[in-house]
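Hey, quick one: can you model this chain's 3D structure?
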Amino acid sequence: MVAVAGPALARSGHGGGTSVSVQADDPYGVSDPATLAFWTPKRMAAATPLDGRPTQAASGKMGVASSRPTAKTWTGSPVVGALFLSNGSGSHYCTASVVSTPKKSLILTAGHCLYGTNGWAKNIVFVPRYSKTKGARPYGAWTVKYMYVDSRWKKKRDPDLDFGFAVVGTRNGKPIASVVGANRLVINQGYTNRVRVIGYPMKKYSSVDKPIYCNVTTHKAFKYQIYFDCNGFYGGTSGSPWIKNYNTTTRRGDVLGVIGGYQEGGKYDWRSYASVFDKDVNNLFTTAKKHG
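Sure thing. Here's the predicted structure for all 292 residues.
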């Protein structure tokens, strides 16, 4: 096990009433034609990872442990996809997933994918089960109406609060969860769980831009951080859901974290972090699901 220093920022007001920051990107209620037109297949294919996760394999002893699993490419899950966005420095992408709510319109990702150093993301679309092949969008592209992050993430970039939600508009009169399904968000699951993590890594390391997955056990990193070790989680995997009780038939389960948090998810492809999901994420979720 590799020892690392703890985060510089401690979660302030932990467990108290969460102050929510909300931003409207497309408040019209349906998928925005202008945003959809912006994201051509060519622009999606050229997008670069938003996060600071590595874009090449780690070198040296720390990156080659034979006992560490390596992520596999596959056909993906309908409830997980690529999240494309603009942030003032070009076109980028993260990973996001659908979470179950009564209104069936909410997705979950890392906080830094929605609000970063350049402020709120813009021109956001979520493409479930995306593949670069012919600009494949098997379930369409869904534009974002509203975004939600904890105010302490917005003000201080507290790594223990690096999670966020977004409401997507309907397509053909249908909300997204009624089309692709959804994971169930769960909190207070402890530090150690067996999960499947699904993400979209930097394209040069993913076969035909297919998503990757790894079945791993999570561990305690710090008081409000968990981690797992698996090779292959390069840039673009921020926001990847950590799914407990994963069902191989429905391809969904209970999401207890997303890649993010410490070092915005980690600086090596083989070690990934997540902020612990507890009362703080639940408070944010409670606000977000009123609209989605």
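One thing worth noting: The longest helix spans residues 279-288.
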